[in-house]
Specification:
homodimer; alpha/beta; Molybdenum Cofactor Biosythetic Enzyme, Chain A; Molybdopterin biosynthesis moea protein, domain 2; 6-stranded mixed β-sheet
């Protein structure tokens, strides 16, 4: 099979793949408290306003604002204190003209009051009278009913990843269960005559399986459930049979080939036979990771990753992660914020090809600087030593020291 | 008790606290495969070199480099092919002068060979002879033994958070168990007469507990185990007794006060009685979050957070997260990378005080721009709507539209 007849640019390859897949329709209802990192599968609305009653934002006196107009230190207003509003309960009285009530931060405003004078601007003057030394406007120092959220308002849209703030907001509304996207199950199959399981004893010429484990962690981090099928020799029948089974059992499939060219060809042949429409992209214009295969077989995404560990992890970040995010229904697919940093050393590259180089991003007084870690692409510890990756755009013939370049954190 | 006699700057307050705490000495041995996000509690070294044998990085012919010197398309070298190196096994032959062996990417170099000629630069010419159309230098197209990792080398230092790359690297070395810091247990106690559990029915004047839940999620995200004790009324004896119990049961304690000034005073009084040395900082020069209390009681950190949900989450990000990271032994405490973005709207602020403003960070053609979300600090949904926070430094009297300002992602 002719490999790489036409290398597709990274962005275009991703678009070809993403344009043909749909959100995983399966959702599940879970406890809000366990929802950290999950993605909402429906719009969440509040049935009540928040706050549900007008609250004071300060310690002070609840007033009718009109009663304070013109009040100043030299010419105070005098109001009659008719009570104290207890925290957590209804005031039990209304404020008539000339009256006020002592209120605490977060307390419920009494009926007919419409502002609060801060305690610092008041002075008790004996009996039940308080001096008001400062005027307040209507609405001053209060939060109105529904000022945070109105009844019926959408509070969290569909397709949002839940953070601590969302969990807090849902607790505030008493929404204790939410509907989230079910985690897609992603099958991982490693092939390669030279590859053994990490717990095996190495014989000469053998290496341990790295990709099943680094990819499992990446999938876990992205919100999928990795399902490792193990390591298989480069035999077409064997690989085809395990891939067929995995495709049935999973929502998506990732195959990492052995490192030789014949092993890569074998992966392509297996994917073609797995189902239609089959291979969409074979060969991406990127280093590392040129032999990447992007396919859809029987409505499920199948990705063939290069065998070497660095290429596999870089390509998984660029293609597997966005697919998982799309399956989850995340509305901001691929929003992985970039940094601009001053490059410390020239990075050579071939024009027309996008390069990704492991790097160390450091903050200094002038902003960020980034130091590339040059290494052969099969050395997994070059990524362990890196905290970021520099992207060399396809139209650049290398990047020069001192240039501001694009950097992405490796998390 | 006089509150806020002296407001301490944010950075200084954190230093005061961190300088007095030590890494949680407790470590545990876990499966490497479950170690994502955990922090190494000892230096990890490799007992073997990686790769353990010299490997080819291309498909081609393993040669003695000297045999190819001067070879070109017009004047090829001729070598005798004595075999093919099977993937995953020892070649079983050595390369004598004038000989070569077919090798695949990742294959083990035969003895006495020291370079590989890419298949593209070779041409079989019948029998067992191959034309070499290009010379190679010693070491070309091979990875030497130990080029990724040398035997005995430290591969992951102490105090590193495990990412997919580390898991891959450990798999490559066959290191299936590692020693990581035990997750610290952090007790969370909410106080406030007005606060009820999220599953309760709201009466007038009551609000639901937000902080126990948003803080639990934040702690979970940071690598701690949150332990929620529930909501308690603002009674000194009650709060003291539950705090004493929680301090015994946990590695650290976070107390969120009711919103009134008297509830905050009560938290301070309780913390003072919990153990020595007691309160280190009471009052931080920040908005939101001025009433923050930082304390150490019986060698455990106790943090009193402001009651309002936004202040609580912002202050927890600035103080609780770095403490947890320190307890975990993370060597890069508080490396939460910042962005610089063009501000869209003026942010007013008081000189001398550090302000944190919820915001929306957007990427455009010129880089990042950031749009502040102005809101009263008790409105939790202002954080739900935000993806970031703008920091207004203490020495600024506000920030102006168009300025490049510091932004931190809200994750």
């Amino acid at each position: 099979m002719p490999e790489f007849l036409k290398l597709i640019p990274v962005k275009q390859a991703l678009q070809i793949l993403l344009s043909q897949i749909q959100v995983n329709a399966i959702a599940e209802r879970i406890d809000t408290l366990t929802a950290l990192g999950r993605v909402t599968a429906e719009s969440i609305r509040s049935s009540l306003p928040l706050p549900p009653f007008p609250r004071s934002t300060v310690d002070g006196y609840a007033v009718r604002a009109a009663d304070t107009f013109g009040a100043s230190e030299s010419l105070p207003a005098y109001l009659r204190v008719i009570g104290e509003i207890q925290m957590g309960s209804s005031p039990g009285f209304a404020i008539n003209p000339g009256e006020t009530g002592l209120i605490h931060t977060g307390g419920m405003l009494p009926e007919s009051s419409n502002a609060v004078v801060m305690i610092e601007y008041t002075q008790p003057v004996g009996g039940d009278t308080v001096e008001i030394l400062h005027s307040v406007a209507v609405g001053e120092n209060i939060i109105k009913v529904g000022e945070d959220v109105q009844a019926g308002q959408e509070v969290i849209p569909y397709g949002v990843r839940i953070r601590p703030a969302e969990i807090g907001g849902l607790a505030a509304l008493g929404i204790l269960e939410i509907v989230v996207a079910k985690k897609p199950i992603v099958g991982i199959i490693s092939s390669g005559d030279e590859i053994i399981s990490p717990d095996g004893k190495l014989l000469p010429g053998q290496v341990r399986d790295v990709n099943s484990y680094s990819l499992s962690a990446l999938l876990d981090q992205t919100g999928a459930i990795p399902k490792r099928y193990g390591v298989f020799p480069d035999q077409e029948d064997t690989i085809h049979s395990i891939c067929s089974r995995a495709l049935d059992e999973c929502d998506m499939l990732v195959i990492t080939a052995g490192s030789s060219a014949s092993a890569r060809d074998l992966t392509a042949r297996v994917i073609i036979k797995l189902g239609s429409p089959g291979v969409l992209v074979h060969g991406v214009n990127i280093k590392p990771g040129k032999p990447t295969i992007l396919a859809i077989c029987n409505d499920k995404v199948v990705i063939g990753l290069p065998g070497n560990p660095v290429s596999a992890l870089v390509i998984a970040g660029l293609f597997v992660v966005p697919v998982v995010e799309t399956l989850l229904g995340l509305t901001k697919v691929g929003f992985h914020p970039k940094f601009w940093a001053r490059l410390t050393t020239n990075i050579p590259s071939q024009a027309g090809r996008e390069d990704w180089v492991a790097a160390s991003l450091i903050i200094d007084n002038e902003g960020y600087q980034v130091d590339p870690i040059f290494s052969k692409s099969n050395l997994i510890f070059s990524l362990v030593r890196a905290n970021s990756m520099v992207r060399v755009p396809a139209d650049a013939t290398g990047l020069s020291a001192g240039e501001r370049v694009e950097v992405y954190l490796l998390t």
